[in-house]
Hints:
By secondary structure, the chain is mostly helical. The chain has helices at residues 2-7, 9-21, 27-30, 34-41, 45-66, 75-95, 99-128, 133-140, 143-162, 164-186, 216-221, 223-244, 246-253, 257-260, 263-285, 296-303, 311-340, 345-372, 377-403.
Amino acid sequence: MSGFYRRNAPWLAAALAMSFASSFGQTFFISLFAGGIRADFALSDGEWGAVYTVATIGSALVLAQAGQLADTVAPRRLVLGIAGLYLAAIAAMAFGTAVWMLVLAVFGLRLAGQGLISHLSMTLTARWFRANRGRALAVVVLGYPAGEALLPPLAVALIGWIGWRETWLLAGALLGLVILPLILALLARGDRVPTGPAGEGGDGEAAGMEGRHWTRAEVLRHWSFWALMPGVLAPSFIGTVAFFHQVHLSGLRGWDLSVMALGYPAYAAVSVVLSLISGPLIDRIGPVALLPVYLLPIGAAISALMLPGGEGVWIACLLGIGVSQGVVITLLGALWPRLYGTRHIGGIKALTVSAMVVSTAVGPGVTGLVIDLGWPLPAQAPFMAAWCLAASAAFALIAPRLAARLPAREGVA
């Protein structure tokens, strides 16, 4: 298996660098600048939340259409286009002086970062690999926890030293001068076709259910997509809510934020370990088999917030979220091409990614409103846990029906 990684190192590294590059458009990074943003733009917590929600939903709507470009545009050309949008958004964040400029900046960061570059990373990996898709995805998704572990402490230190706008300029320099050129250099060898001695498959495409390649319109008309989406959206909703409201939890429970921050390296480590474990497991048993169980850890994690105790409760919550997040990105990256084939996978994944982006926008807004109505986050936790349990039960019923429609799996190298 070491030969597999060695032969495919350029493509794996390119996709991993894309997943890391998405960090600058993720909630965990943007939220670090909330204090400076609210002060400079004279925004209340609610107003800043509204800006974030509107911009994120707008980015999701555009992503639903723009994501199809991953099926038709050469990877290097698409990376160049995303880079232009990404760097323009960072510049707007660093130099913007009006609220409308802030809205555009957040819109661009969410579309280019959490949306397009992340979507391209997962789509290319799904298309490039077949028999070892799970192993490949397990490597590629390591860019996400790497960003979550490395960037927050660095950004917090820089904000205190040089200011929040200047920190965005340094982020732009890192992205534009190091990460994006690295991605382009790694993609210079051209697109990968899943054939060759690794046994990745007999041709460049893999069919989905019923032995065919589903179009986006066909997916939208099929019951399977709508049956899967409620459970698919749960991790992005719950994880974002927990991160977004950590200051609320700190004030509510009297927890020290600096102690709470110690949970993030543990969260990233657990996510990495579970990603590396789940990848080979998915290759052996298929992604459909894991559907009934992958939401249980995050359901237990959010339930932990109901327990009395100190900062250890928060760290336990982060660890449970890390378990599910370590599985979910690899799982979903393998699920969609397995169900619907690879020919139109960019357009299909654009639907799912945009829906997940919407859930990350709606989650903080809805739960924040409920908090304002007198229901703190721990009081909302049972409902989110019940969502996970109900979705897992539904997946247990759905999985056999999906498995019966799948073609034979390719051999594993």
